[in-house]
Amino acid sequence: MYLNYGTGTLGGTVTKSWPPGSTLIARLMNLTGGYLNHYGDYSTAQIAAGLNYTYGGWANNNSFSDLENTKLIVQFGNNPAETRMSGGGLIHHLMESKARSNAKMIMIDPRYNDTAGGREDQWVPIRPGTDTALVAAIAHVLITENMVDQAFLDTYCVGYDEKTLPASAPANSDYKSYILGRGEDGIEKTPAWASPITGIPVDIIVKLAREIGQAKPCAIFQGWGLQRTANGEIASRAIAMLALLTGNVGINGGGTGARESDYNIPFVRFPIPENPVKTAISMFLWTDAIVRGPEMTATRDGVRGKDKLDVPIKFIWNYAGNCLINQHSDINRTHDILQDDSACEMIVVIDNHMTSSAKYADIVLPDLTTSEQADFCMDTKAANMPYFIFADKAIEPQFEARGIYEICTELAKRLGVEEAFTEGRDQEGWLRHLYKLTRDNDPSLPDYETVRKLGIVKRNDPNGHYVAYKAFRDDPQANPLSTPSGKIEIYSERLATIAQEWELPEGDVIHPLPVHVSTAEGWDDPMRSKYPLQLTGFHYKARCHSTYGNVDIIKEAARQEMWINRWMPKNAGSKTAI
């Protein structure tokens, strides 16, 4: 039994659909024996995995509001003007803070995106998938021109040079040796080496490196696009190196090299019993777990909690998500797998629309919309101003639809765990209970009835701005990270072990250092001689995957377009004038 990925109600409390392990379906399943879990998500699978080995856990960054304290902003593929359009205000905070600090903003992106849009001070176009080479060349300039923060690297990091290299690591396997050509590949990562890879002139690389090294402080950010490539874990770790080399982690105006973060209002969430089943697969491999489950292993397929899967997936819960078909890759293959009733024998979809995924269900349970039930909408924030919404019921439930809490309660009754599931509360009772616990932790919050009347509660960060890892920077002994060493791990012993033990497909790389690696169908792929154009995708602002793609007024506002580089090579074979 498997709970599929679903992000239809990200901000809900009772109605929460992501992560699946925090949903009411998970609560019900855990009370009745458990289910096959998954890890990762479609948006951030590689950056979450990669930076976990650097910082330990999900890697945060400073809030955009803190940019009022910086001297330089460098964005690698980060485009909040298009990817964060939902009213959170991040682009507002970015531009307002930039104006207050008068900081220069450099955008590094293959495409001139909307966040640039005349607001940037410099756009550095780069070949897709070559960010690791650019970072290595910048690091070379920082090291050879003595612009690294050696004291920070010695105190807070593992593996920058031989002084902090773990005892298990071979000689010359530190990051500095790799950059200077003393590592295993013997290549010095100079700007002249990186220029033909990235397509960026040598003088621009050198100037960029000096600006990053001399700006005190400097804020480095990365979007989620560049980690959505082959070997994207390494790319995400590489960009973080610029923040580490310059000692900008844990200070105002600095950052970590991850994506921007925000201050949150701590809210007590729905309690989920522990899953008795400890096995988990990557969220992307659920179709494989249907067709070849018992063949999937820990060292080849990333199975966690066991050496291998014992049985294939036979039952799928799909709540408030469209990943059965719409958001998953290789739709034709997925369609064939889901059509075979002898493979996955039961699919239950709970949703309030007949989605593409719902069409593959054996049973569809119609869910309520947000207008038909009350819930707290959490995880709403923008930089240093978090807020939560009481989304009250606006209309009575229509037709035969029922809310997820009622659906699960009825199932719990039939499975003999109703009392354990409900704990004697209905949905309204749970909302009041969870808010009371939240208010016990923060008595300054208004009472329940006042919140219901107000509809929204806003806060400002009491510290002014969110600064990631400030406590660690202030006192690393008292506030260690959750990495094995308690420090920032430039060299990861865990990754060194995985690299030795795992069976990897050709082209996949796991490395203890954030090294430069090629990507599938990248600039140096041999197929380039036959197919000179490289096709990449970007986050289209008018829809989420194909959701909202059928709304005419949105299609008029933002047409679906293909962008073609005006410097396309003459031998590319295009007959279209550029």
From TrEMBL:
Gene Ontology BP, a term: anaerobic respiration
GO terms for cellular component: outer membrane-bounded periplasmic space
A GO term, aspect molecular function: dimethyl sulfoxide reductase activity
Entry-linked Pfam families: Molybdopterin
Signal peptide: none
EC number, UniProt record: 1.8.5.3
Coiled coil: none
4Fe-4S recorded as keyword: no
InterPro entries named in the record: Anaer_DMSO_reductase, Asp_de-COase-like_dom_sf, Mopterin_OxRdtase, Prok_Mopterin_Oxidored
NCBIfam families: dmsA_ynfE
Name of protein: Anaerobic dimethyl sulfoxide reductase chain A
Upper classification of the organism: Bacteria, Pseudomonadati, Pseudomonadota, Gammaproteobacteria, Vibrionales
